[in-house]
Each structure stands twice: as structure tokens, then as C-alpha cells.
Input
Amino acid sequence: MSKIRVFLLLFLLAATDILVAQQYQVGVCDWMILKRQKLGEFSRAQEIGADGVELDMGGLGQRAAFDNQLRDPRQARLFKHVADSLGVKIGAMAMSGFYGQSLAKKDSYMEMAADCFATMDRMGSGNVVFLPLGGSGNDWTTDKALRKEIVKRLHALGEAAVKNGKVFGIDTPALLDQLKWSGWLFVERSRDTTMVRNVVANYSNNVNYLKSIFNSLPEPEVKLNSEGRDPKYVETILGRAKKVTDEFSQTYTPMGQNLRNIVANRYFELNDIYAERDSLKKTDKKLAEAVCDSKLYRSHFAFDASLAKYLDPSRIERVKNVMTYNVVKVTYDAQCDMIPTLKPEEKQQILIWLKEARELAIDAESSNKKHEVFGKYKGRINNYLSKRGYDLTKEREAWYERVKARGGQL
Output
């Protein structure tokens, strides 16, 4: 379950009514995706599907100041350039060091706030800065003196924030709509316990889920051609198309909806082409095959063109891999593992044929037919390797023993 932090204006900051539209942008904390003040946080956020990042001020430890590399204007410009070039926003700043250090005991807290305000101006990161109180423990709820000190320091920080046009946010379980909140929601921690180190999978699933909950998606540009089709069949096809959008962590985004419809429409189109072929076969088998081949040829390139509106060539390849069960990668990796002595030109030829097979398999009418296509090309590859002098029987036996020795199986 995701933990969502919502920035609540403190009363001492004279909260206004300026945020009224119910539109949410979902971001991730850079330190939680293991990219604290690293340029890679922006590409990671993009890969996850987040709208932006909450950029941390850097580590604190026992230091009097944050380990903040963005004090350097050159570094700040570089970070801004990378973020802008990827279309990833810097939604807020954070002083996460106070998860481990007590606000009530850090005498340099005002200087640290000033450093943060200056960095925010340098980065153009909006006006909100997150201040956790985790390092202060829970004693302040019962220790009156400690609570008084924290309140005093929060008041001083609030006054400084007002003067600098900034807002301090704290953890709150507040209800968003009742607060008339709009703006950024940041996912702080979200992990599947079976894959705790898979940052992209964990955060992309939760970021996209939050988007689906808080933001209604606009009508897709690409219309789903489902009219007149069996609803159960449509549901099955949309399930197949979702595997593609899941590959890019875009299932709950506008781009993902268009991509889903393009892929689903391709499956519908193939079904129609083969249904027409089967109908024509009843009277003229030769004509049936000719009409089918002609329509497949034309539609094959139209599919690529539709995808190209939303994806670059490398990602179009990933779509095709998903639609053909990743047979290209699985087979290529197996061939290279089976015959470690393959020459570069031999590996290249194997990959060329497998990709050629994929282009044919993607137009096949069923899973079995797709695998039949790859089967034929695997035979071609085996013949090629045999002519190159490889004893495939011995290579396969040796491979089996290697795999068995490392605890695997074929």
C-alpha cells in the first residue's frame, strides 16, 4: 500500500484559497527511488511514469548543513536542463535529513531553511518544501518543553517561508477533496515485499494507480474499434493489449490508453482478415489466400505507423516483443548461452533472422501459428550453424551439463 504525503499549509503560514481545481500531479521522492540529487532521477521518474520529482536537499547526518551540490549554479543549471529535456518537473524540495535529525535540537535549522529557499529559487521547483519531523521522535507529544520548542521553531520557519514566498509542508492524513487540495502528491515508500529492490516496477505501479484514482483520463485520440464485437472477446483483447502498456508502465496514462487501443485494434483487424479468408475459402481457396496476404501486407506497415506517433523505434520493437512472447530475446540468449564460441557475425545473423521471424509472427492468427513461424526460423538457424562447423548435438549436451551444474534446468 502506498504512503502518500500531501502538503498541508500550516495555519501559521496564512493558508489561502488559491488551490481549488481538483487536478493532481503525481511525483516520487528522489531519495526513495535511490537517486538523491542524482541526474538519473529524472530518467528514472520518466520510466516510472511520474509527472515529476521531489528533489531532496541532500544528506545531513551529523553535519550542520545539507550535503547540497545544487548550491553550485552550474550543477543547478545541469539538473534543470536534464529535467526540462525529459519533460520531468521538479514539483517540490525536501529536507529529508530531518527524518534522522531532531528539529528541536538542530541549531542551524534557520540557515538550512535559507539554503533550501535559495536552492528552490535556483531550481525553479515551485514554492513547497517538505519538512519531516521523524527525527524528533514522538516525545514531543507528551514532553511539553520539547513540544514548545518545536512549535517555536516551526513558527520561525513559517515566518521565514512567508517572507520568501514559500510554504512548509508536513505529514498529514488529511482528506484531499475536503481541503480543496490540488497540486502534487508524492509517493514516499511503496514496495512489493517480493521485489523490494525493483524500484521501477514498484513505483510505476503505484504512481499509475494513483493517477487512475485521482485523475480522470481524457478521451483517447485513438478510437477503440470494438463496436459490434462480443464483449467477452473485447475484454480478452484488452487484456492482451494491457501487457503492452504495462511494459512501459503507461497503463493508466493518456498515452497508455492510445497505445492500448492501437494494439487492441491490431488484434481486431487480424481477426477480421482471417475471418474473411476462412469465409472465402469455402468458394475459392486461392483467392482467399491472395486477399488475406494483400491485407496483411498493407496493415502490417500501418500498424508500425500508428505506433510511431507515440513511440520511438526501440519501443516499437518492445511492443512487438511483448506481442510475440519475447521469443526473440529468449531464443537469442539461449543460442548464445548454448554456444559460447559464437562469432560476432554469427550472433548478428541469428538476431537478424529472429527479428525477421518476429515480423511474420506478429501477423499470425494464433499463438500456435506465431510459434510455428519461429520454429521454421530456428530450423534455418540450426542449419546455418551446422554448415559453419558446429556439432549442435554436442553443444546442446555440454550446455545441458553447464545449466545443470549452476542449478538450472532446460
